[in-house]
Design brief:
15% strand, binds potassium ion, 10-stranded mixed β-sheet, alpha/beta, elongated, 2 domains, binds ligand NAX, UDP-N-acetylmuramoyl-L-alanine:D-glutamate ligase
């Protein structure tokens, strides 16, 4: 799914109005009805609803929603924050209609702000995507009062005060909602970690904006939906054998961190690889053979480190279908030399994770050796070591896109809504996963997943988008069974389903 910016969404509204065609007020009605459908499914009609409206179209939505809720026999109070003399046409239209049902209360001074109770549900329709300056004066006072109150808060389209696709500067205030119900598509702001408090749990409701305009609109930003991820999945053919699905090589582990290798290996096997060889330091031999009997183990000649040579013969590096390197390997100079050798000789996209990334950061010339379309899987701290500090999430996105383009690699920046930057500068945000996955070893699992997909011949971009989705989906299934707190990395592997 594409993520468009505010200007594009405004044009999309206009395009829909002209080409569907539909009257602007009807489009507002459709949006308000979509919001109301979500709301009535979540909160029963005994709920004390307080709708706070601004004077633009977001406020117009608020007035229409208030009317629809009154008609559905909810107990609704409406407040209009009168911060300016002018109101939008569609606001004015809905104002006239609402006044036939109830009298809105006008807020012009802080003394007009009502006291909100724990049992109240606030609908925030003060400012929407049309925000063009920081919230000040009475708007700020109302936002502060709502944020201080113990009530549940649901924002219409976007939290008042939050910018949809640019940074909220220090000192700016936003509503901190429990829920955001946004129209048609997520806004970029909702996918960025720094905005978590200004977004809450968000849901998209469809308001039928024109698909042709969406298809024609250029954007570097995408959100991976379940259907899109499903389309990437390949069926396993009936007449296949293990050779069909590739022979992968994982280069993992060091003394004390052989477990990372076990996690990556198990996840690789659970992701459909045909055959898997795992090279670990000699100390990992017994551990790996016992924990994962399905793999071919290639013990390194070094007892504690990954250094390259092994007494066991195996295919040349370039003959493996895919190579994954990094989990648990440590940062010893011998291992750095081996990483150099691997990157020089593997000649196809590799998966590079964890300490392999830290080694790249320490010896920047190694980056020049990365095979094109390799998949790097840093968490934010590792990515910062590879690049530079950033000012805010938007700055980070630019650094991310620039890095992927300059190095011609795929960067999977891990976190909530993992951002996958592609060599063409596009960024795909993931839609699966949960905070239970913030636990040691889930990154090693992802390395195994991605290596397996590359070995099966998935294009690296598809492998990255699909693998990250499947990994998050498995995490969600695991969290359903165990709850988020008790979730460990092995649960993610055990929950890999490859269907959704
Ligand atoms: N255009 C359309 O056809 C649709 C618009 N919709 C709603 O319309 C919203 C966008 O509406 P608008 O563009 O009218 O804008 P908003 O309702 O977000 O903002 C209202 C107006 O306030 C002014 N303003 C900007 N920043 C301010 C600030 N900090 N303090 C005080 N005033 C400020 C601006 O002049 C702006 O036009 C969306 O978020 C959505 O809720 C939906 O009804 C769907 C259809
Ligand atoms: K709002």
């Amino acid at each position: 799914m594409k993520i468009l910016d505010v200007d594009q969404i405004r044009q999309l509204d206009q395009y829909t109005i002209l080409n569907e065609p539909i009257a602007p007020i009807q489009l507002m009605e459709r949006a308000s009805q979509a919001f109301t459908n979500w709301f009535t499914a979540r909160f029963d009609s005994k709920t004390a609803v307080k709708v706070f409206c601004g004077l633009g179209n977001n406020g117009g939505d608020g007035l229409a929603i208030a009317r629809l809720l009154i008609q559905a026999e909810y107990n609704v109070d409406v407040f209009v924050v009168r911060y300016a003399p002018r109101e939008s046409d569609d606001f004015a239209h809905n104002h006239r209609r609402l006044k036939l049902l109830t009298a809105p209360v006008y807020i012009e001074n802080p003394g007009d702000i009502p006291t909100l109770r724990h049992s109240d549900v606030v609908i925030d329709a003060i400012l929407g995507s049309g925000i063009s300056r920081p919230a000040e004066g009475i708007v700020r006072s109302v936002i502060e009062a709502i944020n201080r109150a113990p009530a549940t808060v649901v924002s219409v389209d976007i939290a008042s005060g939050l910018h949809a696709n640019s940074a909220t500067e220090p000192g700016e205030i936003t509503i901190c909602p429990d829920y955001t119900i946004t129209f048609e598509m997520p806004k970029l702001a909702m996918l960025l970690p720094g905005n978590a408090k200004s977004v809450g749990e968000w849901h998209v409701v469809d308001i039928g904006l024109h698909q042709r305009f969406i298809d024609q609109s250029p954007t570097p930003y995408y959100y991976t939906t379940r259907d899109e991820a499903r389309l990437l999945l390949r069926r396993r053919e009936r007449f296949s054998n293990k050779g069909t699905f590739g022979h992968a090589l994982l280069l993992v582990g060091s003394y004390g961190k052989v477990g990372a290798g076990v996690l990556a290996a198990r996840a690789c096997l659970r992701s459909g690889v045909g055959l898997l060889t795992v090279q670990v330091p000699r100390c990992g031999y017994g551990i790996l053979q016992t924990a994962v009997p399905e793999v071919i183990c290639r013990p390194d000649v070094h007892e504690r480190l990954l250094t390259g040579p092994s007494e066991v013969e195996g295919p040349a590096l370039a003959d493996y279908a895919a190579v994954g390197i990094g989990p648990g390997i440590g940062k010893a100079p011998e291992t750095a030399r081996f990483l150099r050798e691997v990157l020089t000789n593997c000649r196809k996209p590799a998966v590079v994770d964890a300490d392999a990334l830290n080694l790249l950061a320490a010896q920047r010339d190694l980056m020049g050796l990365l095979p094109e379309n390799s998949i790097l899987t840093p968490h934010p701290k590792e990515f910062e070591r590879l690049t530079q500090r950033w000012q805010n999430d938007y700055d980070k996105l630019e650094i991310l896109r620039d890095f992927a383009q300059r190095k011609q690699v795929i960067v999977v920046l891990k976190g909530a809504h993992t951002a996958i930057a592609l060599p063409n500068g596009d960024v795909h945000f993931n839609s699966t996963g949960n905070p239970g996955m913030s636990t040691g070893g889930t990154g090693d699992v992802l390395t195994g997943v991605l290596t397996a997909l590359l070995a099966q011949g998935y294009d690296p971009v598809e492998a990255a988008v699909l693998g990250v989705f499947a990994h998050g989906h498995a995490g969600d299934l695991a969290a359903e069974q165990r709850g988020e707190t008790g979730l460990i990395a092995s649960d993610v592997t055990d929950s890999l389903r490859w269907s959704w």
